[in-house]
């Protein structure tokens, strides 16, 4: 090396001088962060909605309650059990868990929870008591303290609506040792929040009353007083007994079933007037027990916007002997998750209804993920969840883009769509609710961008039309040959011009929206659970049962809706998406219920028997492009004489399954790996499945080898192209930086001044291999006094023209850690190309310190 002070000595001197002059506190180094240099960010900073703009920093004294959500111990095992406990024919069917059993089996261990709590305390935070399910740790702190502890800042944001929100500018940072345990953080921003999915319209002129035909009304159930019956026509609305008559609840009422012994939880983010509910009950002569649980202090006081009143009175009017448990929380993301957690952790309500939601893209991946875990927990405990599918038709985000609503799109939730019911005679005359001409609303439905299609949809027989010309796998990134979750699952009356009569703000009003359809299905399920067939036993997560019932007795269990579409645009902008059709469609789902026949089918397990179908797992499969495949899927049925029908999802391109024999055959055309699920179903609707991976190798041959020359730098400055004083040996650098093995290594940056170092090598990647792996050992140390990434090391592949093909990784001063760590990346996507592997270290000196990036033992292995 050249004479004078070497770069590492300059680095040490610079750090010593800086700390001596300014001190750690002056540099703004939180003691917790200083004590734990190895940190990792979880998730991402939120995206601002269209039209939003920053209006300055959030006051550091602002109180920001957050939830640190933890990952389940084994997410895949939880998903398997939630599916199995809900699937007729499974050996685990209806083996529901208690909350304590759920926590013991699926939550992080007590030691893992304690480690997260200790880490939070070390960063200056005070964690509250973990929730009963072991998945949420509440933390209340100021914005200033959270900024220091989580390595972010907060700014105020003016939204297009005029509301001022706040948001974190960076993803939260945690100790690397506990970061893998953390699913996300709720409450760091207030950019969006759920909205009610109900619509109250001015009906004073009754100009639409011709749309409402008051015909058949249910007998045996609650009957309205004359004041309600008189008010209904002028409000374009039906009374509860007319709604019940349309859906054939009379047989349930005739058997004495009005939901006794069943508890229904209503998720609310607004208050309601208890006097309104009392007036409704007085009119109908009911005495349902209504309880209130205030979560996080509740949702305030007053009448609310009518959503809570609609939900409560809807359930009372249809299942009057059920207990209605109203859970009220503030309308925030923290309130949202806390409210769902409280309902699921209490585990006293067999049925849950929510009429609050957001379009998926606004909900955000963190909220969707954390909700999903809670809904899986609910499924393991036998709780049935219904969610309104939205009131903006196929364009749920209020734009021209196709979108669906969360949580209706969640795989363990039954999404409820909206219908226009022009007569209550049974079966009702129904079409898709779409008030584009009045600019009022339309029933939500479509394809999820967040969830792959669950097995109860993908395994449905072709006669149900679940997989249709509008199905797609692209929105959610489903594997080849698979599809995305489709919404809704079922539907009911929701048009506010053929609406529900409720008592609100001291008078009778007509109201609609899918917010009315969801609690209708919840009330119906309370009647089902209380029926003599179910005998108080919860049907649990309903979707496998509903699709199984439709597969075995569609015409008798559901009313098919075949008219209209949910293209909520006056000009038909979306070309009629999504149209109603025979059986399932993404405007009405499976349709509306027949209260006389569907209960017995649901209580019986979705079919006429409780058969068990077992599919033998063939294990992982490996094939080669161009070579024929023959794999016999084997299955058995607990009942004799049953004929099995086979189906499969995720098969490699070129392969198919014979629906009668279960033989998978064909010739693979494309190399790759896919997750395959094969399902066998008998004539009663009982089914069983097995899942496995199928890898298709390229037909070309491959010689395993390592491609880099001088991979450990032991030949000094040969083969590699590097800036000056980057490739060094231990004798030059002792006692500072050292090699990982041997005597030579590459040392980038470490000057304490703005500087860039590079080291690169060009290789040609062969074709025909399955594995192309770049690996190297890195050591990063830093004295930068900042929580920002000011010094970076980029790992990139460039083409022969010097254009960056991909940035495989970007490390920074925030990744500093003791000793060497190995990093590896697949570069299979560049097979057959001549590429340059380039490491670029950039030092900015913005943090008044220095960062050293050392590399050793690099390799590009193909096999």
Key features of this structure:
Jelly Rolls; Immunoglobulin-like; 6-stranded antiparallel β-sheet; 19 helices; Rossmann fold
Provide the structure class. Answer: alpha+beta
> Any idea what the CATH superfamily of the largest domain is called?
Peptidase S8/S53 domain
Average pLDDT, rounded to a whole number, is 89
Can you tell me the CATH class of the largest domain? Alpha Beta
Number of helices: 19
Overall morphology:
globular
| Amount of beta strand | 25-35%
CATH topology of the largest domain: Rossmann fold
Instruction: Give a quick account of the main beta sheet: strands, pairing sense, barrel closure.
Output: 8 strands, mixed
Helix percentage range: 10-25%
Which residues form runs of ≥5 with pLDDT under 50?
Answer: 1-6, 8-37
Number of domains: 3
Q: Distance N terminus to C terminus?
A: 39 Å
Query: What's the total number of strands?
Result: 47
| Rg measurement, Å | 31 Å
CATH architecture of the largest domain: 3-Layer(aba) Sandwich
Structure overview:
The protein has 863 residues and is an alpha+beta fold. The protein has three domains: 7-25 and 703-862, Jelly Rolls (Sandwich), CATH 2.60.120; 195-456 and 478-603, Peptidase S8/S53 domain (Rossmann fold, 3-Layer(aba) Sandwich); 613-697, Immunoglobulin-like, CATH 2.60.40. Helix content is 22%, strand content 29%. The chain contains 19 helices and 47 strands. Strands 12, 13, 14, 15, 17, 19, 20 and 23 form an eight-stranded mixed β-sheet that branches. Strands 37, 39, 40, 42, 45 and 47 form a six-stranded antiparallel β-sheet that branches. Helix 10 runs parallel beside helix 11 (307-318) and helix 12 runs parallel beside helix 14. The radius of gyration is 31 Å and the shape is globular. The two termini are 39 Å apart. Mean pLDDT is 89; it is low at 1-6 and 8-37.
